[in-house]
C-alpha cells in the first residue's frame, strides 16, 4: 500500500490530502502538523476550516485510510511520498521584507524530513514557493540526511480556490507535476501521477521541468489577480463616465480570447495568495535585475490598494463627508463567499479606514467567528483594544447589525445578502439610509424603490 504523509494541515494540506484519501482507498494518507490544536480539530466533529463538501469527504475516510496526527516524525518515517504544504507568508523583516516569501517553514520541514527519514522518499513541494526552491530543498536533504538515502523532489503546485476547494480538487482543470528531467525524476513524476490518475484523466496531468512548474503557480495567480485589477481600474472609469462595469465586463468576456471568468469588479481582491504571490514575483524580478518587469506586476497590487481606498472614500463622501460617530453595518468579513477565511480580506482595510474616521462598526458575517474578527482588527496596524471595544460590535444576524445604522457596506458576496428583507432593514435604519454594494450583488432598482440611497462599484449613482 502506498503511504503518503502531508506536512501542514492547513487550507491546502487538509482538503487536498483528504480528497486523495477519498479517491484512493488503496493509499494511506496521514496529515501531520506542528499545531496539535489544529490536528485535534481535524479529528473532531468541528473541522478547523469551513469548505463546502469537506465534512463529507473527511467523514467518509477518516480512520479508514485518512489520519490526522501531531506525530510528525512517525508520518515522515512511514511515508513513500511526502507533501510539504506548509505556510509561505510574505517576509516581515530582513532582506526582501514586504515582498519575498518567508521560506523558514519550508526549510524547517525539509530539515526534519532529512533528519528523520530512513528510507527513500519522494518529497513534493505543494506550498507556493519562489522559482528554484526545489534546488535549495534538495541541497538541504542531501547535506543533512543521516544515511545515504535517496530523495527525489517534485513540484506539484495547488490551484484550488477557497470556497470551491472540494469541487476544484475533484475536477481540476489540470494537475501540474514538475521534476528534474532525469530518469529518476521521471520515475518520481510517474509515482505521483499514478496517485492522481485514480480520478484525474491522464491528459489533465501535465508534466514539465521543476522551474517551469514552480513559476507557473506564481504566474497563474499573477494573471488572475491582474484581471481583477484590470476590471477594477475600468470600474473607476465607469463611475466617472456613466458606463456600467458589469456590462463592459460582459461585452469583453464574450470574446473567446478573453473569456467571462474573473472579470467581476469588486472592492478589491483578498485572500492569502494573490498579494503574497505577486509580491513574490516582484521580488523575483528585482532579484533578476528586471526592474520594469517588477514594476509591471507591482501595479496589480497598487491598483488593488487604490480600489479599497477609493471605496472607503466614496462611503465617507456620500455620508456628507463625515462618518465620525456614525454607525455603519459591514456585511461580510471573509475575503470571499463560502469561506470563513479572512486573510488579507478587503474588509480589514475598509474597517481600518472607517475606524480612523471614528465611525462605529457593526459587523455581520455568516462564517467568521467573532474571535477571528477581533484578532484581525485588534492589532497595531488597525485598532487598539480600546478602540475595538468602544467602536466595533459583532452581530449574529444581518438584521441586528443593520439596526440604527446610517449605512450598510457590503464587502463579501454571500448569497444570503441578495435575499434579505430589505424593507425590514430599511425601516430599522437611520435616514437617509445608505447602502454601498462593493460586490455588485444587490438589486439596486428594488432598493431605490424602498427608499435606499444606493452606491455601487463601477456604476454612477
Ligand atoms: N489557501 C489556499 O487557498 C492556497 C491555495 C494554493 C496554494 N496555497 C499555498 O499552500 C501553502 C499552504 O497554505 P495554507 O493556506 O494551507 O496555509 P495554512 O497556514 O492554512 O497551513 C499551513 C500549516 O502548516 C503547518 N506547519 C508549518 N510548519 C510545519 C512543519 N515544519 N511541519 C508540519 N506542519 C507545519 C502550520 O502549523 C499550518 O497549520 C502556502 O504556500 C500557500 O501559498 C494556498
Ligand atoms: O472576478 C473576480 C474574482 C475574484 N475576486 C476576488 O479575488 C479574491 C480571490 O478569489 P479566488 O481566486 O476565487 O480565491 P482564492 O482562494 O484566493 O484562490 C486563488 O488563490 C489560490 C492560492 O494560490 C489559487 O490556488 C487559486 O487558483 C486562485 O484562484 C477574492 O477576494 C475574490 O472576491 C474578484 O474580486 N473578482
UniProtKB/TrEMBL annotation:
Which pathway does this chain act in?
Nucleotide-sugar biosynthesis; UDP-alpha-D-glucuronate biosynthesis; UDP-alpha-D-glucuronate from UDP-alpha-D-glucose: step 1/1
Keyword NAD recorded:
yes
Q: Name one GO cellular component term.
A: nucleus
Keywords, A to Z?
NAD, Oxidoreductase
Q: What is its EC number?
A: 1.1.1.22
- UDP-glucose/GDP-mannose dehydrogenase C-terminal domain sequence ranges: 329-444
Q: Give the molecular function GO annotations.
A: NAD binding; UDP-glucose 6-dehydrogenase activity
Say which enzyme class the record assigns: oxidoreductase
Query: Domain of life here?
Result: Eukaryota
The entry marks the following residues as binding NAD(+), namely 8-13, 33, 38, 86-90, 127-128, 162, 273-276, 343
Q: Provide the active-site residues from the annotation.
A: 273
Q: Which organism encodes this protein?
A: Powellomyces hirtus
Q: What is this protein called?
A: UDP-glucose 6-dehydrogenase
SMART domains named in the record: UDPG_MGDP_dh_C
The family database entries (InterPro entries) matched by this protein are listed as: 6-PGluconate_DH-like_C_sf (IPR008927), NAD(P)-bd_dom_sf (IPR036291), UDP-Glc/GDP-Man (IPR017476), UDP-Glc/GDP-Man_DH_C (IPR014027), UDP-Glc/GDP-Man_DH_C_sf (IPR036220), UDP-Glc/GDP-Man_DH_dimer (IPR014026), UDP-Glc/GDP-Man_DH_N (IPR001732), UDPglc_DH_euk (IPR028356)
Keyword Oxidoreductase annotated: yes
Q: Which reaction does it catalyse?
A: UDP-alpha-D-glucose + 2 NAD(+) + H2O = UDP-alpha-D-glucuronate + 2 NADH + 3 H(+)
Q: Which residues form a coiled coil?
A: none
From the UniProt record, give one GO term of the biological process aspect. Answer: UDP-glucuronate biosynthetic process
Q: Where does substrate bind?
A: 158-162, 217-221, 257, 264-270, 335-336, 439
Q: What is the similarity comment for this entry?
A: Belongs to the UDP-glucose/GDP-mannose dehydrogenase family.
Q: Which Gene3D superfamilies match?
A: Cytochrome c1, transmembrane anchor, C-terminal, NAD(P)-binding Rossmann-like Domain
Amino acid at each position: 500500500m502506498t503511504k503518503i504523509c502531508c506536512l501542514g494541515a492547513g487550507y491546502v494540506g487538509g482538503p487536498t490530502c483528504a480528497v486523495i484519501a477519498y479517491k484512493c482507498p488503496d493509499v494511506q494518507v496521514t496529515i501531520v502538523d506542528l499545531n496539535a490544536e489544529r490536528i485535534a480539530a481535524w479529528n473532531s466533529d468541528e473541522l478547523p476550516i469551513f469548505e463546502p463538501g469537506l465534512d463529507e469527504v473527511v467523514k467518509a475516510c477518516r480512520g479508514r485510510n485518512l489520519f490526522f496526527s501531531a506525530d510528525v516524525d512517525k508520518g515522515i518515517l512511514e511515508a513513500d511520498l511526502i507533501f510539504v504544504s506548509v505556510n509561505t507568508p510574505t517576509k516581515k523583516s530582513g532582506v526582501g521584507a514586504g515582498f519575498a516569501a518567508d521560506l523558514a517553514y519550508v526549510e524547517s520541514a525539509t530539515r526534519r524530513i532529512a533528519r528523520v527519514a530512513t528510507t527513500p522518499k519522494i518529497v513534493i513541494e505543494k506550498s507556493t514557493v519562489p522559482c528554484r526552491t526545489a534546488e535549495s530543498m534538495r541541497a538541504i536533504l542531501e547535506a543533512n540526511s543521516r544515511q545515504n538515502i535517496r530523495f527525489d523532489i517534485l513540484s506539484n503546485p495547488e490551484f484550488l480556490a477557497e470556497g470551491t476547494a472540494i469541487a476544484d480538487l475533484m475536477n481540476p482543470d489540470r494537475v501540474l507535476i514538475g521534476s528534474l528531467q532525469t530518469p529518476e525524476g521521471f520515475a518520481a513524476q510517474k509515482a505521483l501521477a499514478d496517485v492522481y490518475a485514480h480520478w484525474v484523466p491522464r491528459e489533465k496531468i501535465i508534466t514539465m521541468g521543476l522551474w517551469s512548474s514552480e513559476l507557473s503557480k506564481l504566474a497563474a495567480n499573477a494573471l488572475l489577480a491582474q484581471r481583477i485589477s484590470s476590471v477594477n481600474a475600468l470600474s473607476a472609469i465607469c463611475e466617472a463616465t456613466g458606463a456600467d462595469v458589469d456590462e463592459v465586463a460582459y461585452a469583453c468576456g464574450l470574446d473567446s480570447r478573453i473569456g467571462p471568468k474573473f472579470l467581476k469588479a469588486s472592492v478589491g481582491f483578498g485572500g492569502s495568495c494573490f498579494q503574497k504571490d505577486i509580491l513574490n514575483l516582484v521580488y523575483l524580478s528585482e532579484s533578476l535585475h528586471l526592474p520594469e518587469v517588477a514594476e509591471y506586476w507591482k501595479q496589480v497590487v497598487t491598483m488593488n490598494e487604490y480600489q479599497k481606498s477609493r471605496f472607503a472614500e466614496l462611503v465617507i463622501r456620500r455620508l456628507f463627508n463625515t462618518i465620525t460617530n456614525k454607525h455603519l453595518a459591514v456585511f461580510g468579513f471573509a475575503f470571499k463567499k463560502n469561506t470563513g477565511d479572512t486573510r488579507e480580506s478587503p474588509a480589514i482595510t475598509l474597517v481600518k479606514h472607517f475606524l480612523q474616521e471614528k465611525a462605529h462598526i457593526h459587523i455581520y458575517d455568516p462564517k467568521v467567528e467573532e474571535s477571528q474578527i477581533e484578532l484581525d482588527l485588534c492589532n497595531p496596524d488597525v485598532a487598539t483594544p480600546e478602540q475595538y471595544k468602544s467602536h466595533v460590535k459583532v452581530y449574529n444576524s444581518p438584521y441586528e447589525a443593520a439596526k440604527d445604522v446610517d449605512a450598510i457596506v457590503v464587502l463579501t458576496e454571500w448569497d444570503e445578502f441578495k435575499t434579505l428583507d430589505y424593507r425590514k432593514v430599511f425601516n430599522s435604519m437611520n435616514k437617509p439610509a445608505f447602502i454601498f454594494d462593493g460586490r455588485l450583488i444587490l438589486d439596486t432598482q428594488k432598493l431605490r424603490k424602498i427608499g435606499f440611497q444606493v452606491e455601487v462599484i463601477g456604476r454612477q449613482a
